[in-house]
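As the work plan foresaw, our protein records have gained a structure token line. A representative record is set out beneath this paragraph:
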Amino acid sequence: MRKNYIIFFAFLAAGIAIRMISLNQLDWFFGANLHVDEITYVAGDSPPFERPPGTYLLAGIPVEASVLRFIFSVISLVPAVALFMFRKKSSGNAILAGILAVEPTLAFSGLQILPAAPAAALLALALTAGRDRPLLLGWLIGCGALFRGELLLFLPVSVFFIHPLKRYLTTGSGILIAVLPVLAINVIAGGPFALGENGPMNLWLGSSWELLETPPGIEFEEIMGDDSFTDNSLTSIKGDIPGWFGRGFVKTAAFLSVPGPGRNIEAPELLSSTILKYLLALTLLIMAMGFSGAGKNSRTALVATGLVAAFIFFPSIRHRAVFLPALVLSIPDFRWKLAIPVALVITAFSLFLNYPGGVRPGLTHVQIAQDQLESGEFQSALEELITAEEEGFKGADIHTIRGACIASSGGDFQLAAREFGIALEMVPDSPTAWKNMAALLWNYGHADDAVYAAEKAVGLNPQLEFELSPILYGQR
């Protein structure tokens, strides 16, 4: 017994250490500011929720971003603790749980204020504490869906894996018990179907490589259009059904690649800049052995849910991290004859797959520049934009940020106007781009042109009227 604890706590200590080292190594990117996806989940902390509400509630703790990241990092260790505490105390299980404590992509996901780590923790608890109690199993999976809405796909997927029917229905009831009260509260508060509200948008994004590779910012703002995501998705899919299926298979292959693609940040590059890169072989080993241990059970149903979600929507490192506990728990049933070819396939995808939906190179530096602009560090922001261009970034945001840096630092009007003009040529229907141009023109005394730009901005987004009212109504 003592040996098992020594093995596990040695791994756990190593997991804590690599998280501390990695967080320190990534401080140049994370710093004190939230990155784009963290902002999405920290923006609201009370109903009505617009997206899966679990992270809103956790992120609503009134502490600094660095403290929140520490909390989420601790949560990313819960799957390992659950595997050790709620299963037989054998040396083999201690090693398996310990490996999950040092697995790099779950550790990386836990360094960010995002839903992956809490969802993975809840699924680990579901598959351990709830493995013989289907109602508890379902309830914990339903709680996980409050963080990652695609887990609701477990309901249709698991019908092929969980038998007898009574066990499936009981598990499904547990999911509904967890989900329905939150949905009811949100509806009463005037909100949408929170858990799946961004599902149509993600389905639409996953229907086109061009949409998937468009970075957050004014380019993405423009393609959002009239927000008819369901109609846009169906139109896109019906217009090219073979192409949609083809993209789905490529997205699934990317889900299987190591370390995997990013979404809105250059996750593979960031991960590879830390000590975590030396542990990526563990991820490949877990996936190869876990997939070869598939069977008709809830573990495999969850893994299949992850694959289906990648096929329909899109993959990323953090999306896959959610399902790693299920893969680890499948390892005891692995079969060598299947594990070896699976490992070869994953290795081939990792080395040779050209995933068209990847993040644009240099986006990380564009996001840092945006943060520095907001902090008044204009020269540093301009230097980051140069680095982004050197790494190959091309897009409207680089010009709008540069124009804002020049204008905000009292630089040359013509240079700032030129940068904003280039951005508008690239995204003529972006309300933010027109708003920026209006503010520049107004501040430099070009009132008539400023009013024209402000009217364009408000025409594209009426919510900007109050912000632009000094320009629109001539108030100085």
Notes: Residues 363-472 form a domain with the Serine Threonine Protein Phosphatase 5, Tetratricopeptide repeat fold (CATH 1.25.40.10). Residues 331 and 366 are 41 Å apart (CA to CA). The longest helix spans residues 2-25.
